[in-house]
Amino acid sequence: MAKYIGPKTKIARKFGEPIFGPDKVLAKRNYPPGMHGNNRRKKTTEYGTQLKEKQKAKYTYGVLERQFRNLFEKAARAKGITGEILLQYLESRLDNVVFRMGIAPTRAAARQLVGHKHITVDGLVVNIPSFRVKAGMVIGVREKSKSLEVISEALSVRNHTKYPWIEWNSMDLNGKFLHMPTREDIPENIKEQLIVELYSK
Length: 201
What we know:
With 201 residues, the chain is α+β, with helices and mostly antiparallel strands.
């Protein structure tokens, strides 16, 4: 899957969930896109269900197929529950952590901030969205970027106590990644076991 740059509402309607954030159109038309979207009664196969769940995870976190497969293979080699570890790896990507901290309104915006060198990790600029954040690392806004409107607007509406694995410092505009989140703490509606079953075939 190449990078998707089309209408996000169309993808959200495909899955019937606001995977990119609040969506006014989805709220009114919670059925697949297309002229027959509201009348489809097609039975989905087991493979189709598993594939759809993988696609939903990829779109949600903005990860391409090769990146996603590599993360899965790393998760499969690690000790623990493969599906849960996969989600933890996705959650610990720098672009996702920036989004969770409220520095950006969406993951796509977070990716752009990282790519444009507005974000620091332990005081050093990192411009790789897929950079894996580890426990104890401090993610912050570069000094000359703190006045950016997109950042100040995003921070003004975010509840910074929402995620127990993140500690936010509103004075310095940085946050500490305390630990990997547990599955119960990750709010995404993803059935990771279906993804494990898909890749295990």
